[in-house]
Design a protein that fits this description.
The protein is α+β, with helices and mostly antiparallel strands and about 725 residues long. Helices cover about 50% and strands about 20% of the residues.
């Protein structure tokens, strides 16, 4: 029996060793492959993001350069005409530096010089320290002088210096005599590095330890990296980068050996934007961070399994009863071990879930964009779909992020229209008392919630003309933005005070002044000089701490300026801020008091048959479901042509109202509305048609009304407003 057992162990031990080697090789293969995929995905994501940001930055720089050159060209062209028709030369008795200084100051240039037909400088002036000789050395003088042959032709160029300062130059031919007018605008190195080179900030927040080494090069010159020792060096001087560069671009990791270090091997990849090369690499120890751990754990488990199996083999010589008892004891031991393993697995899963939540939270904070916040929360919902409480909480957070994103989009669009001069101010009669009540009604809840005292000093306020003409929507926006900041940057137990008075009244114009003070955190004197600049915020963490866009005060300033008013701010850190707004208004007569009529208005749309015209399947599904939940019967079509055809084929009174999208294929909503109104049937003239569109500005609403629509609703839809407008339109139809 003993010999038999010895023979048995001689066969089993080599088999166990062979099986262990095969198992460890398989575990190593799959674990290393998994780590490689994770590292590859992480580096590709980083490189793609850097590439996208580099391209966006270059496009913005090109647009900024074109805009600056156009402005310099327009200023230089203006000087050309003033040379011939302006009175400065005659008054001064000729052209000299004093006349050119006047031209430079009037057109906001930094330098100006005049060339005769031979290219000789006749007169010059500059306020930036760069004279005509220096400037002409930097340009192609033959090309510049070539504009003499073509009066309508201009010559423009940006001259960039090594410190990144630059001169935007424009030249046009003179019309008063043969010669060339050359004007230029100088941008300092400090400003250029801050405004025109955001690429330097791309790697902020990325560390080599957690994200790998990131390198951005302009050809062979490294200009940006999260490893400060690489900045300013050449790609070919770093062996790892040289290996990656020689393999070319791609989406697969490249194994780059460091010839200077035995354990210095790395994995990395490279991609190219419009003008820059982006590299990302990390060391082997980082790529295979979990492989060794998994292999050791697998080896340990295998040894434990071998021990158990061998212990069972050693007990084969015992009696059946002992085997039964041993089997029972072994079963109990396995059950207890399994319970411990399950307990450990649950604890590990909880730790993993907590780690994942913390990771997502940090990523969301670092990226600091509502869109990435929504994406992250959606990913959490996908992996925890059965956890209803977590899903509901995430939905609330996504709604907050979506509202903040919508607010940001609205602010950016509003700011864009202000900068382009496309904001349309209405001329409506406004009751200052009612406007004040509306603003207080909107803002008072936020103040109370924040624990801030609201003090509107009526006793000190003077309103001699309660009715004025103005744009109520934009006026309301001005004060909501200011009060919003007073609340946002205040502290619990703080206070907001408002006083209204008049400055002057003449020719039917009254100027009102609002003085709004808070006891908040205040602002530094250095920041006050930039408070009205777009995206200006005093603290770097303001967007995450206060959820602001940095556009509120810029919009306020733009609207106040459009209204012909002024705004000033004084502040002291730790004490508070005071906003003074002065706006002139045309005095309006008091409205006639209408007779009150007691009417009973329904507030639902139950039983209504509505025609929904929407080309986007998701938007259509959402609108149809929400309207159906309100008790309405919905007929859905995908474009304006289908809506016109269906309405024409339906009997009169088949639909109670039409909900019309604007931008659709085949036929848009405005054309469809005009076609329906032009039909020769009674209900075509009276059926309510309500616009539901993402075009949210007042001019868009005016176009809808002009086309024959009854109301305009902006997406995303607020179902209470939708129901109210439908009910209102149907009731007014009679």
């Amino acid at each position: 029996m003993k010999n038999k057992q010895v023979i048995q162990w001689k066969h089993i031990v080599p088999l166990e060793i062979f099986a262990g080697i095969i198992m460890l090789m398989a575990v190593f293969f799959f674990a290393s492959r998994s780590d490689m995929k994770k590292a590859e995905s992480k580096l590709i994501t980083t490189v793609e993001y850097m590439k996208e940001q580099c391209n966006s930055s270059q496009i913005r720089d090109l647009a900024s350069e074109a805009k600056s050159l156009l402005r310099v060209t327009e200023s230089t062209d203006q000087i050309r005409w003033r040379l011939k028709y302006g009175g400065e030369i005659q008054k001064n008795g000729g052209i000299d530096s004093n006349v050119l200084e006047t031209f430079v100051e009037d057109t906001f240039l930094d330098g100006l010089f005049l060339l005769d037909a031979d290219g000789t400088v006749q007169a010059e002036y500059n306020s930036c320290g760069h004279n005509s000789t220096e400037v002409l050395d930097k340009v192609d003088k033959d090309s510049l002088m070539d504009i003499l042959s073509f009066q309508e032709k201009s010559y423009t160029i940006r001259i960039t210096y090594e410190d990144e300062s630059h001169i935007d130059l424009a030249a046009v031919s003179r019309i008063d005599e043969a010669g060339v007018v050359v004007g230029y605008y100088y941008t300092s190195a400090e400003y250029a590095q801050i405004v025109n080179n955001p690429i330097r900030t791309l790697v902020a927040g990325y560390t080599p330890e957690s994200d790998g080494t990131i390198v951005i090069s302009d050809g062979n010159q490294i200009i940006v990296s999260n490893d400060a020792s690489l900045v300013g060096t050449k790609v070919e001087d770093t062996h790892i980068l040289k290996c990656i560069m020689e393999r070319g671009t791609g989406t697969h990791l490249i194994h780059a050996k460091d010839k200077n270090k035995v354990l210095g091997n790395h994995f990395g990849l490279m991609d190219k934007s419009r003008d820059y090369y982006i590299y990302a690499f990390m060391g082997e120890y980082k790529v295979f961070s979990t492989t060794l751990y998994i292999v050791l754990c697998s080896l340990f488990l295998y040894l434990v399994l071998l021990i158990l199996i061998n212990l069972l083999l050693l007990r084969t010589g015992k009696t059946y009863e002992e085997k039964q008892l041993e089997a029972k004891e072994e079963y109990l031991q396995k059950l207890e071990s399994k319970n411990k393993q399950l307990q450990a697995a649950v604890q590990a899963a909880e730790r993993a879930n907590a780690a994942k939540s913390n990771f997502l939270s940090r990523m969301s904070h670092d990226i600091r964009t509502p869109l990435n916040g929504i994406i992250g929360l959606l990913k959490i919902d996908e992996t925890h779909f059965d956890d209803r409480e977590l899903v509901e909480e995430n939905h609330k957070k996504m709604q907050i992020s979506a509202n903040h994103l919508l607010s940001l989009i609205n602010d950016v669009l509003q700011m864009s229209k202000l900068e382009d001069g496309n904001i349309v101010l209405t001329h409506e009669r406004i009751s200052l008392c009612e406007l004040t009540q509306d603003i207080v009604l909107i803002i008072i809840g936020r103040a109370v919630e924040a624990g801030i005292e609201w003090d509107y000093e009526k006793g000190k306020s003077v309103i001699p003309y309660p009715y004025i003409y103005g744009s109520p929507v934009h006026l309301r926006q001005i004060f909501l933005n200011i009060y919003g900041n007073c609340i946002k940057y205040n502290r619990p137990g703080g206070k907001i005070t408002t006083i209204v008075d008049t400055l002057e009244e003449h020719d039917g114009i009254c100027t009102y002044r609002w003085t709004i003070s808070d006891t908040g955190i205040g602002m530094s004197q250095a920041f006050l000089a930039h408070i009205f600049e777009p995206f200006a915020q005093e603290k770097n963490d303001a967007r995450s701490e206060y959820q602001g866009t940095g556009l509120g005060m810029a919009i306020v300033k733009g609207l106040v300026d459009r209204m012909g008013g002024s705004i000033s701010v004084t502040s002291e850190e730790g004490v508070g801020s005071t906003f003074v707004i002065c706006i002139p208004f045309e005095i309006a007569p008091a409205p006639e008091q209408p007779e009150e009529q007691a009417t009973e208005t329904k507030t639902d749309i139950k039983g209504m048959h509505l025609l929904l015209v929407e080309d986007n399947e998701l938007n259509a599904e959402i609108a149809e479901m929400m309207l159906t939940d309100q008790g309405a019967e919905i007929t859905l079509v995908q474009n304006g042509k289908q809506a016109v055809d269906l309405f024409a084929e339906s009997p009169e009174g088949a639909f109670d109202a039409i909900l019309m999208d604007i931008m659709m294929p085949v036929m848009d909503g405005l054309t469809a509305t005009k076609n329906i109104r032009a039909m020769n049937r009674a209900d075509a003239k009276t059926i309510p048609i309500i616009a539901m569109t993402a075009n949210a500005f007042k001019e868009d609403a005016d176009k809808c009304i002009a086309a024959g629509m009854n109301a305009h609703l902006a997406k995303p839809l607020d179902m209470e407003k939708v129901v109210f407008e439908i009910r209102k339109a149907v009731d007014s139809r009679g």
